[in-house]
Amino acid sequence: MSKIISIEGKAKGDSNLPFQFNEEFRPDLIRRAFLALVSHKIKPDGVSEEAGKRHSSYFSKRRDRYRTTYGYGQSRTPRKVISRIGSRFTTKGASVPQAIGGRKAHPAKVEKVNYEKINNKERRKATRSAISATAIKNVVESRGHKVENVSNFPIIVEKDIENLKKSKEVLEFLKKIGLEKEIERTKIKKVRAGKGKMRGRKYKKRTGPLFVVSKNCDLIKASKNLPGVNVCKVTDLNVELLAPGAEAGRLTIWSEQALKELEDKKLFK
């Protein structure tokens, strides 16, 4: 049994939690499902089959051959011709891995399978476990969320929350339910240490609340400008949203209608 909050931040009634919230908290299974999900985003990567082989190179130690390296004290390495003076050729190692500009010894191959697999029952159980973690206050606080003024977990709001059309209205609602410090926490943006600064991910941002709704609604657009805030339909929930970085316990705000759909459709069973 949990309390339902109105968009004014006041208690409105009680609601029974669906069976998904009774699942055992399994951080190990959540991490396994998270890594399997994220691995499917890895793009195939490999080198060209012709890389390091786009020039003519030869190897000969026979004295009766043209352009031989016989008698010059050179190693048995395939070579390409750099210049020629009369019958004397200036050569340079080529094609082999130890030569400059040569092929790679063991190059990355596009056909390599990089993604991990997970059983459907394990994946659904991990999702249920991540859902149940949103109702445990000490787990939510362990992720760094500022929820000192929030006593009721999970946070369930009346269905009118889905009709908010402006970012200002969403901010006002978050303040009314005691998440002022959480709003300030998600505004923090830091410069990443290391070479990631040069690779399109200069800043590190905080993960904030997740709104779970029952359908495509105005709240999705209204929350786009709020840092760290995400909105997701209940049918699209997954471990990556509920446990960013494979750490369960994200601060989640459930719409009353979303919980009803979670129970009626028996999602993730």
Mean pLDDT level:
93
Q: What's the tally of helices?
A: 8
What CATH calls the topology of the largest domain is Ribosomal Protein L4, Chain: A
Radius of gyration, CA atoms, in whole angstroms: 30 Å
Instruction: Give the oligomeric state.
Output: single chain
Q: Would you state the CATH class of the largest domain?
A: Alpha Beta
Q: Cα distance, first to last residue? A: 20 Å
What is the spatial order of strands in the main beta sheet? Answer: 2-1-5-10-8-9
Secondary structure blueprint with pairings:
Blueprint: E1 2-5, E2 11-15, H1 27-39, E3 79-85, E4 88-93, H2 120-133, H3 137-142, E5 155-157, H4 167-176, H5 180-186, E6 189-191, E7 203-205, E8 210-213, H6 218-222, E9 230-233, H7 239-242, E10 252-255, H8 256-264
Parallel strand pairs: 1-5, 5-10, 8-9, 8-10
Antiparallel strand pairs: 1-2, 3-4, 6-7
Give a short synopsis of this structure.
The protein is built from 8 helices and 10 strands. It has 269 residues and is of the alpha/beta class. The longest helix has 14 residues.
Characterise this structure.
The protein has 269 residues and is of the alpha/beta class. The protein folds into 2 domains: 2-35 and 116-264, Ribosomal Protein L4, Chain: A; 43-113, no CATH class. Helix content is 25%, strand content 16%. It has 8 helices and 10 strands. The chain has helices at 27-39, 120-133, 137-142, 167-176, 180-186, 218-222, 239-242, 256-264, and strands spanning 2-5, 11-15, 79-85, 88-93, 155-157, 189-191, 203-205, 210-213, 230-233, 252-255. A 6-stranded mixed beta sheet has the order 2-1-5-10-8-9. Strands 3-4 form a two-stranded antiparallel ribbon. The longest helix has 14 residues, at 120-133. The radius of gyration is 30 Å and the shape is elongated. The two termini are 20 Å apart. The relative contact order is 0.17. The model has no long low-confidence stretch (mean pLDDT 93).
